[in-house]
Amino acid sequence: MDLLKYQRKREFKKTPEPKGKIFKTKKYRFVVQKHHARHLHYDFRLEMEGVLKSWAVPKGPPEKPGIKRLAVQVEDHPVEYIDFEGQIPKGQYGAGTVKIWDKGTYKLISKSENRINFELFGKKLKGQYTLIRFRKPKYWLLIKKK
């Protein structure tokens, strides 16, 4: 995925979201944004490969060990989105309120095509997590490890 898919879905003259570009950084930051769109969900984003790799987590990220949550991979978002909060106007893709629920840094433990292991250092989310791809390519499980 790249930012073109993200940019094609938005009218930047009408939405306050950042247009963005790919940044070649070695930062390991994450953000979880509570998104009141058509359905309340949480957007889980890891800064990786110059963008924010992004997943929609309908029930929110797990805070207790052993809990598994569906995480649907969505288009990459620009790194500038890590600080985004605001109202996406009605009629725009993702219309609704976006608020930062948690943010911090993470340590990448391992990464393959179907699994990402990492440790989060946020205000709410702390500890080791795994994202495991299953079924169709965009469906993952987000699990907090014991």
Number of strands: 9
Question: So what's the overall shape?
Answer: globular
Structural class: mainly beta
Distance between the termini: 31 Å
Radius of gyration using CA atoms only: 14 Å
Oligomer: single chain
| Beta-strand residue fraction | over 45%
The main sheet comes to: 8 strands, antiparallel, barrel
- For the record, the count of structural domains works out to 1
**Helix/strand order, N-terminal first:** HEEEEEEEEE
- H/I helix tally: 1
Q: Averaged pLDDT, please?
A: 92
Overall helicity:
under 10%
How would you write the strand order of the largest sheet? 1-2-3-4-9-8-7-6
The low-confidence parts are: none
Explain this structure.
The chain is mainly beta and 146 residues long. The chain has one domain. The chain is 4% helix and 51% strand. It has one helix and nine strands, in the order αβββββββββ. The protein has one helix at residues 3-8; strands at 29-36, 40-48, 51-57, 68-77, 86-88, 96-111, 115-122, 126-133, 139-144. The chain has an eight-stranded antiparallel barrel. A hairpin with a 7-residue loop joins strand 5 (86-88) and strand 6 (96-111). The chain is globular, with a radius of gyration of 14 Å. The protein starts with a helix and ends with a strand.
List the helices and strands and how they pair.
Elements: H1 3-8, E1 29-36, E2 40-48, E3 51-57, E4 68-77, E5 86-88, E6 96-111, E7 115-122, E8 126-133, E9 139-144
Antiparallel strand pairs: 1-2, 1-6, 2-3, 3-4, 4-9, 5-6, 6-7, 7-8, 8-9
Structural key phrases:
single chain, about 150 residues, mainly beta, eight-stranded antiparallel beta barrel, 9 strands
